[in-house]
Design goal:
Length: 339
């Protein structure tokens, strides 16, 4: 049907509903992208839309539904950190973007690393520019997710939030992943196992350190700990500190692949062979872990799937569905030559 044909009325949502044999409310849910409609009903409505040549009026639909079809991903890091060599951030963006694109939604990327930028994000979202917010890489007790949720904005975060909050989150099983790493080192005969822990203002850093401690405690071994910030340079510095504190250590579990790579560089500089003298295990299973020297044994967390799952949960929440307060994805050990 030609919408510009003389004497022809523009097809309405009511005519689509009649053609599909459903209520107007059901037809509206399908047109507005709600995931709560049964597949066969969705197919009937979409077929009616195609047959009649129905085109939703986006401006009117936005006024009625107050939907923008845009979702914000807020990374609470500086631009320098987000666009560094850390593969975590592009992987999270990739997963979230893929899920939103499949749902016909636009991703809006925002970075927050100061009080002023927190306020700017609050004002942007309160003004109705996005239909929901995903927050990742939080440090400390970050008030942003809770503030937005109290204002009625759908929010899902990546990583278990610190403090008391009812905001739903998606995370990897960090503690069990760390236990898998340490158990592997124990099973291969390592006796003095150190760790380069992640930052202790992030739950990923806390949980991986807790897993390391728990596994050593169960085997009556003492902890040997240095703290990094998930970067390669911090891994180098922490490994040098560990060697100075305990020259006899024979293994190290680093809470990120970047820190593990830094640790192996520091070990080579100190004349220690990996894995002959010191075994090394990382965490993430980033692409480069297969190409370090030697290839890195590591704990795989599904970073792209974390982004996808976060976006999927946010879309469900924005559609008025009830979602689980916590979604935790499994981790697994990937054994290569470094341990």
């Amino acid at each position: 049907m030609s919408l510009g044909a003389p004497g022809r009325e523009r097809p309405t949502l009511e005519s689509v509903a009649t053609r599909a044999g459903v209520s107007r409310a059901t037809a509206s849910r399908v047109v507005n992208g709600s995931p709560t409609v049964a597949p066969h009903i969705r197919e009937a409505v979409l077929r009616a839309v195609a047959d009649l040549g129905y085109v939703p009026n986006q401006a009117a639909r936005s006024l009625v539904t107050q939907r923008t079809n845009s979702i914000a991903l807020v990374l609470t890091e500086s631009a320098g950190r987000v666009f560094s060599d850390d593969p975590f951030f592009p992987s999270i963006v990739q997963g979230a973007s893929q899920e939103l694109d499949a749902a016909g939604k636009q991703l809006v990327l925002m970075m927050v690393n100061s009080g002023a930028s927190h306020e700017r994000v609050e004002q942007y979202t309160i003004s109705g520019h996005v239909d929901g917010v995903m927050v990742a890489s939080m440090h400390g007790v970050d008030p942003l997710p809770g503030t937005l949720a109290r204002m009625g904005i759908p929010v899902v975060v990546n990583g278990r939030p610190m403090g008391h909050t009812s905001v739903p989150y998606v995370d990897a099983d960090n503690e069990n992943g760390a236990r898998l790493a340490v158990r592997h080192l124990l099973d291969t005969g390592r006796r003095r196992i150190a760790t380069i822990a992640g930052p202790q203002d992030m739950t990923a850093g806390i949980d991986r350190l807790n897993g390391y401690r728990a596994e050593l405690r169960d085997s009556d071994r003492r902890s040997i700990i240095a703290i990094g910030d998930f970067t390669r340079q911090s891994g180098i510095a922490a490994m040098r500190q560990l060697l100075a504190d305990d020259p006899g250590l024979d293994a190290v579990f680093a809470a990120s692949d970047l820190m593990a790579d830094g640790a192996m560089r520091a070990l080579r500089q100190a004349g220690r062979r990996v894995p002959d003298d010191v075994a090394v295990v990382g965490f993430d299973d980033n692409e480069f872990a297969r190409y370090t020297e030697p290839p890195l044994t590591t704990v795989r967390q599904p970073i792209v799937d974390l982004g996808r799952t976060m976006a999927r949960q946010l879309l469900r929440l924005a559609a008025g569905e009830t979602i689980e307060p916590a979604t935790v994805l499994p981790t697994e050990l990937v054994v290569r030559e470094s341990a």
